[in-house]
Amino acid sequence: MSCNRNCVNKKLCSDSNSVDQRLHLDNGLFLNELPQESVNDLNVNTSVLLIEPFYGGSHKQLVDLLTKEIPGCVLHCLPAKKWHWRMRTAALWFSQNIPHCMKYKVMFVSSVLNLAELVALRPDFAQLKKVLYFHENQLIYPVRKQQDRDFQYGYNQILSCLVADVVVFNSSFNMESFLSSISSFLKLMPDFRPKGLDQLIRPKCKVLYFPLMGGEQMGGSSSAEQEIVHEVPAGEINEENLLVDTNGEKIVKLNRNSPHPETESDMSKPLHIVWAHRWEHDKGPDLFFHTLYQLADQNLEFKVSVIGETFSEVPEIFEEAFSCIREHIVHWGYQQSRQEYVNVLKNADVAVSTAEHEFFGVSMLESVQYGCYPICPNKLVYPEIFPAEYLYSTPQQLAKKLRYFCKNPRHVRTHKVMVDWRQFLWEKLKDQFIELLSPADKESNDSESC
């Protein structure tokens, strides 16, 4: 079967009988780990056109999952590099490089793409059911000065909404912040401002949370099967709450989503903090590292893993932090495989977000899924998902929480996190995505060919 995945470097597409075939770009930025059988032949059962101009991070995770789990999907994508230019120019590139195919019934695109431009350049796409998915929105993207805001990014997303048939957001915060900001955003225009666009767009909108992968999507047992069944309320560990393993060592019956119980000696090990976000300014690395500097200056014991994707420009604070807290570092940098990433989360105690720009927070929910205690800002999307216990409102509150946990790591390791992450599992959301990607016209035309 020939590969129909429209990569930037077409010469990489070749015939292969290998189920584990992988496609690489020459620059090494793009890796497709989908089984070959999940990439459908253009002449067999093709109905859904997936387009992702920024194939990285959660954007990659979502379209890979859809391609693998929902029959009939064909993915066209560009590497996750220079998102500013992807928003400006990807539509023209895709218009020239996506083959014409009359079998497509549905188009699913992320909001990085200027859908209005693409449909204008490719009139054959106009008849498709057009689904626009917002991982983030540009109307409230944080900028240091208002004059630094590029008006075109947000304007393009508004136009895309007007062209789309269905507009999907990954959280209520994302949807409401976008819709409520349209009018004020358009006031940046000097004159001839359109009116009532939010009222035109809102009826098309819905919230469909980003799906977390369970064990089935990772090729193993489900995360629920890995949980500890013994539960002990925080602060109530005593001799009655201990088991003895085959080596005679005492094991605490944990009340958390940890894959294994820990020995009594493990309970006193230094707190392990994980920061699993893109290495960019909008994720607030300055606040995170300066908080760690305070902990180190107070001679508190802790370990830290700083993971997440990096791009061409990395904030200077990362180099500074690596030098300042080097003796505390366990993992530093992007984890090359999904399993490596999950293993870091499983071995950490506390996951911290210091984000200034977040519309769902995949890594924080995944951290909870694999046993971490979450600490998040009391803003953005986080109050929608996390109870108040796990939120902080000031840098001082963040430092206070971490200081306490450094002194009392046992509290974290015996705490049952009260976040219902299971509601976000793919198994729970799959039917909604299948319905979303179902053609508006249920009648199929098998006589049509590409």
TrEMBL record:
<feature type="domain" description="tRNA-queuosine alpha-mannosyltransferase N-terminal">
    <location>
        <begin position="48"/>
        <end position="212"/>
    </location>
</feature>
<comment type="similarity">
    <text>Belongs to the glycosyltransferase group 1 family. Glycosyltransferase 4 subfamily.</text>
</comment>
<dbReference type="Pfam" id="PF00534">
    <property type="entry name" value="Glycos_transf_1"/>
</dbReference>
<dbReference type="InterPro" id="IPR051862">
    <property type="entry name" value="GT-like_domain_containing_1"/>
</dbReference>
<dbReference type="InterPro" id="IPR001296">
    <property type="entry name" value="Glyco_trans_1"/>
</dbReference>
<feature type="domain" description="Glycosyl transferase family 1">
    <location>
        <begin position="269"/>
        <end position="410"/>
    </location>
</feature>
<dbReference type="Pfam" id="PF12038">
    <property type="entry name" value="QTMAN_N"/>
</dbReference>
<dbReference type="InterPro" id="IPR022701">
    <property type="entry name" value="QTMAN_N"/>
</dbReference>
<keyword id="KW-0328">Glycosyltransferase</keyword>
<protein>
    <recommendedName>
        <fullName>tRNA-queuosine alpha-mannosyltransferase</fullName>
        <ecNumber>2.4.1.110</ecNumber>
    </recommendedName>
</protein>
<keyword id="KW-0808">Transferase</keyword>
